[in-house]
Each structure stands twice: as C-alpha cells, then as structure tokens.
Amino acid sequence: MVEDEKYVSLVMDTPERKMPKKTVSEQTRHQIDTHTAPRVTFLGAAREVTGSCHLLEANGLRILLDCGMQQGGDSQKKNPGHDFSFSLDPSTLDAVVLSHAHLDHSGMLPRLVHEGFDGPIYCTHSTRNLLRILLMDSFHLYSKDLEYENIRRERAGRKPLLPLYEEKDVDRVIELCSTHDYCQRHAIGSDVALSLYDAGHILGSSIVELQISFAGKIHTLVFSGDLGNNSTSLMNEPTVVENADLVLMESTYGDRNHRSFDATMEEFEDILRQAQEDHGNILIPAFAVGRTQELIFQLGKLYHQGKLQNWAVFLDSPMGSAVTDVYSHSVSRLDPEDIALLKKHKSRSLTDFLPCLSVTESVEDSMAINRIKSGAIIIAGSGMCTGGRIRHHLKHRLWHHNTHVIFTGYQAKGTLGRILIYKPRTVKLQGQTIAVKAQIHTLGGFSAHADQAQLLAWAQQFKNNPPFYLVHGEDVALTALQDELAIRKTRVNIAEPGSSVSF
User: Fold this and answer.
1) 413 pLDDT more than 90
2) What CATH number labels 261-446?
3) Which residue among 21, 89, 356, 367 has its CA within the 20 to 30 Å range from the CA of 493?
4) CATH class of 26-256+448-502
5) Cβ distance 85 to 498 under 8 Å?
6) What's the whole-number average pLDDT of the chain?
C-alpha cells in the first residue's frame, strides 16, 4: 500500500501504542476541500480482490465507499481475516456508503467506529439486516483468536494485545446505519446526493451513485460494488446506469466467463450421480450470504424433480442459517420467477423448499455428521475454507477417495480453498497433515459475481463514455478486462493502491 502522508496509519500490527489524531480543524479542512474538484483515493481492493475501500473528497465532505476486510494471502498471516489495510483518521470522515454486507466490503466498520468514526452509514434495509449477523460472527472469531494469541504471548513473557474493537462497536455500527430503498435519492450535506441501485449480487447489494454539485456542474461518480451474475437464481439483474463522470468497476472475473447455468447444473447432477455410485459424501464450502441460499434453492428444485432420492442435505452453518432466515423474510425483494416457484410448492421459506434439509446448530450435531458413511451433502462455511465448520469436515473427509468437494465461488490467493483447487497431495489442517484423496470440483456457474461478458455489457450501457477505474480484482483479471474495454474504445485505467483521481 502506498502511504499518503496526509493520513494517520491504522495498520493492525500492534495496538500497544495509541496513534495520534489529525489536528486540522473541521472548519479549515472544509475550506481547503471546497476549492478542490471531487477526488477519489483508492485505499483498498486496488490490485487485489478484498478489502474494498475508497475515499471520496468533495465539497468539504469525506465519504468512505465501503470499509472492507482483507482476506487471504499475507493478511491471514498477520492477523487472520482482520487486517486494517488502509490509512486514514476515522474521526475526520463524514459518512460511509456501504455497497453490501460481505465482510470484504464491511468487515472493518467496527474498527472504524472504535477509532472515532461516528457518522451515518448509508446502505439498504437488507444490508443492515445481514450486517449484524456477519459482523457479530466476525467479532466472535476475532475475540477467540485474540484470546489464543494472548495465551501464547503470556507464555512467552510478552505483553498481551489489547482488543482492536469490542462488541459495543458492532452494536454502534448497526445504530449508525441509515437505510434507504433502491432508486431513492438522499442528500448528504447540501451539495451531494446519493442513490442506490440493485447490483444483483446478494440481498441488498447496491450500485452506488453520488452526484456532486461543484463549480456550477453536476459531477457523477458511480461505484459498481459487486455486480451479480444474472444467470443465477434469487437475485434480480444489475440495474442499468447510463451516465457518469467517473466509474469504479469491480473486476473479480474480468479474465473469464462462467459456464452457462444449464451446463453448470448438468455438471452438478453428474457429480451427484458419481458420488452416489462411489457411496460417498459431498462437501460444499459456501459463503453464508448468497451462495448458501442459491444452493438451497437449486437443491430444492432438484428435490422436486425427484433427483435427490437417498440424499440428506445438511446446512452446517449457524450464520448461514441466520442469513437464510433473512432471505426467507425478504422474498418480496427476490426474483419474481423464483418467488412464483416457491409459492407453487407452497413453500413459505427457502428451507421449506428443500424438505430433506437439516440445519445443524450445535457443535455436537456438526460432529455427528462425520459418522454418516454416505449420502450426505454438507454445506458449511467458510466459502474459501479460511475458517468455520467446513475445515472440520475437510479434516475428517479429505483423505477418503469417495469424498467429493465442490467449490462454487471465488477462491482468493493464500486461502485453503485456492490451494485445494490445485489438488495438492497434502494440506495442513488443525495442526495435522491431511492427505488430499478427495475428488475436487469447481462450478463457476454458481458464482454471484458477473463474469467478463456481463461486466463488459454493463460497462457498455453508459451513454457518455466515462472514464473507468478497475478495482476489486487480481492483476490477470484487471489487465484482461482493461484490454477488452480498451478494444471497445472505453477510457480505462487500473486503480493503483493509494493513488487518487479527480473528476
């Protein structure tokens, strides 16, 4: 990360020293900013997929777009899943606009509040509902990790680490959420207007539009957030936005296209048949938000088609269960065709739609699944195998030839999921070396992210050919998408960490 001398570093290295706050007064800061054209600084998810965070400075306001956690790679080594990867003084921020609830977009909000932020967090109603679940789960994991780390430090005669944030900070994040419907215009200050549009990625996910009145002109910034894969179920297609002066666009799958959804489902059914012939079991690492609900819905369709005979499905994820309840209470916001199918089968919820589904809550129930010799489909978090109950199941089943592991989503660098898709001979799990004899499958068609063709189609809908800055992608994906956009005469750059652009 390129550091900007204007901001105080809050890297999550050690909290044993207190970082000084900026001393520039609010009045002076606003006087300086109001004479400068709107500017965006790329603080996270630049040249990487996770840690989404961009700072907008306009008309004396400092607005953060997302406040995400870095996941995978070096961040796991420094502090698993909780790296505060950008530099700024939270107390100088006026607002946060949150595109959606996934932790790589929202996970550092409690830390931001702990360090002095106390402004509104703009998001959709569904995002707030999901946010409490995800942030509380993340806090409990962090607290457990911190407890173990401090035991090790005490044994070594070292000072314990202080908590970087507390449960009350999570509560405060939820209190600060200012929720809005899609297509609802909201004023931020006197000269900035916010609108959120459906991104089609997960429940409540948004495309962010900010219109700024400056020097007698309206300057429009559009941030794609994460754009959805319009081939999958439950979500609506991403909203068409036609005009902007600057576009920040995600690039997660900028270098590839997903298999068609029909082909993906055919492959899924082939894996089911193969696993049944092997008298084996199926493990599906799944993100608690979005992917788990998609899988339950698709398995429900297979059940009603008579294709899940002799299979028992287990949702072994307390967080996934809680999120599924939120989806079930928000069916009116989902795709109308899928709502109609639920009603046809008299299903009041997603779990009703899959009668052979069992939801395991306790650790004991989770462990009991390992006694099942065959016929179990186990959906468990986390989606990249960085934590959660899926690691427990992998430890017990990876070394069996008749185990089938299905990856249905993006696997970031440095994660166990990314390692497994390359089919190593062994992996380390819970301090043990485990042989990898299971059959590993990837089903990209289930991805909740738009693929290259869908990203290009969304980008081409802008009528005024605005400049694009690509974020939220690895170098190969960024470069491939940049090349394809350039062929189409789009003005496009790759956002560099710490760099700024005025518009």
Assistant:
1) no
2) 3.40.50.10890
3) 89
4) alpha beta
5) no
6) 89
